[in-house]
């Protein structure tokens, strides 16, 4: 493997993994925009990831040739065996397992180790080189149980029935996971969605992920009207909280579902009243546990807090290498600004 301006390049196979620029052949781990870019020639991915790409960028830009690779299926290209296994990040997310001349490298993409009712659980694969993310690669990041965080949301709904609870959640993966967790906790009322979340929730439903009754946030009867949906749950992109759209809602409790809500300053800066620490990435302990499970003597870190993780690996006798891939962390749970890191490490 070689690091290029386009991203990770498999030399003998002559293809890229999650390239940042259009290339002749790309293997895509999942549908978030910092990994799945438009206008490649040939795209290999899971059926779900290709469906997400078509929704987000249009069928004509999701790869001129789109090849579905089933989980566990082996595709050979220029002598390199390519296999996809679940990454547990979002629906259809995969690790890419490459075997060539007796050596194996696994590119994790983004991943989490917690159970998620909307996607398959991460599967560790023993390898010679493991390529990992490190979004939450600091010891301070130890994610609580997601079910307990949903319990905090339900308790707030009980305490403030006169207010709408507006949960900021990313459109792909996080929104659907929050909905599914609410259903598991017994919330059977309609969940209301900002228009930006509708298409991907409908796609999840079409792919067999049951989300229960959903509805778009209604338009007020008169211009400038508000006070809608008291006592209800509304999901919206995090950016919606700063727009006039939010005035439709009844004195909203601003919530946010993100691993970064572990950092008080982050929540305060964003005006979050009820931070929900729900992450779709591995935390510090899970990163280290995963490295131990795959038994790789060498670990490459694509993005995140690579310095801390590489140092921790060295103490365990594992060779670490920071790749500094450009363009990663632009979506799902973006990189922490310096002041957030300062607080987290204090």
From TrEMBL:
<keyword id="KW-0436">Ligase</keyword>
<dbReference type="GO" id="GO:0004527">
    <property type="term" value="F:exonuclease activity"/>
</dbReference>
<keyword id="KW-0269">Exonuclease</keyword>
<keyword id="KW-0378">Hydrolase</keyword>
<keyword id="KW-0540">Nuclease</keyword>
<dbReference type="GO" id="GO:0016874">
    <property type="term" value="F:ligase activity"/>
</dbReference>
<protein>
    <submittedName>
        <fullName>Ligase-associated DNA damage response exonuclease</fullName>
        <ecNumber>3.1.-.-</ecNumber>
    </submittedName>
</protein>
<dbReference type="InterPro" id="IPR026360">
    <property type="entry name" value="Xnuc_lig_assoc"/>
</dbReference>
<dbReference type="InterPro" id="IPR050698">
    <property type="entry name" value="MBL"/>
</dbReference>
């Amino acid at each position: 493997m070689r690091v290029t301006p386009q991203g990770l390049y498999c030399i003998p196979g002559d293809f890229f993994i999650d390239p940042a620029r259009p290339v002749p052949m790309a293997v895509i781990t999942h549908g978030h925009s910092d990994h799945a870019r438009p206008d490649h020639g040939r795209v290999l991915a899971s059926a779900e990831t290709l469906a997400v790409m078509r929704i987000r960028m249009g069928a004509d830009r999701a790869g001129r040739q789109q090849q579905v690779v089933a989980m566990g299926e082996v595709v050979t290209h220029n002598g390199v065996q390519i296999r996809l296994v679940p990454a547990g990040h979002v629906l259809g997310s995969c690790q890419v397992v490459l075997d060539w001349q007796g050596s194996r490298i696994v590119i994790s993409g983004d991943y989490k180790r917690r159970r998620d009712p909307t996607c398959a659980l991460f599967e560790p694969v023993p390898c010679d080189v493991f390529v990992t993310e490190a979004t939450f690669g600091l010891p301070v990041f130890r994610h609580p149980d997601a079910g307990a965080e949903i319990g905090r949301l339900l308790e707030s709904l009980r305490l403030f029935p006169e207010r709408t609870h507006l949960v900021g959640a990313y459109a792909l993966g996080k929104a659907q996971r929050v909905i599914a967790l609410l259903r598991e906790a017994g919330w059977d009322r309609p969940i209301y969605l900002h228009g930006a979340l509708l298409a991907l929730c409908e796609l999840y439903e079409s792919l067999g992920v049951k989300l229960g009754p959903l509805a778009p946030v209604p338009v007020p009867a008169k211009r400038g009207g508000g006070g809608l949906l008291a006592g209800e749950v509304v999901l919206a992109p995090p950016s919606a909280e700063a727009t006039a759209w939010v005035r439709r809602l009844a004195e909203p409790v601003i919530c946010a579902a993100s691993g970064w809500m572990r950092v008080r300053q982050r929540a305060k800066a964003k005006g979050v009243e009820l931070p929900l620490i729900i992450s779709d990435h591995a935390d510090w302990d899970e990163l280290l546990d995963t490295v131990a499970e795959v038994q790789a003597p060498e670990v490459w870190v694509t993005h995140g807090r690579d310095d801390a993780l590489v140092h921790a690996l060295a103490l365990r006798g594992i060779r670490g290498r920071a790749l500094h891939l450009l363009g990663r962390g632009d979506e799902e749970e973006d990189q922490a600004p310096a002041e957030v890191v300062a607080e987290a490490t204090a």
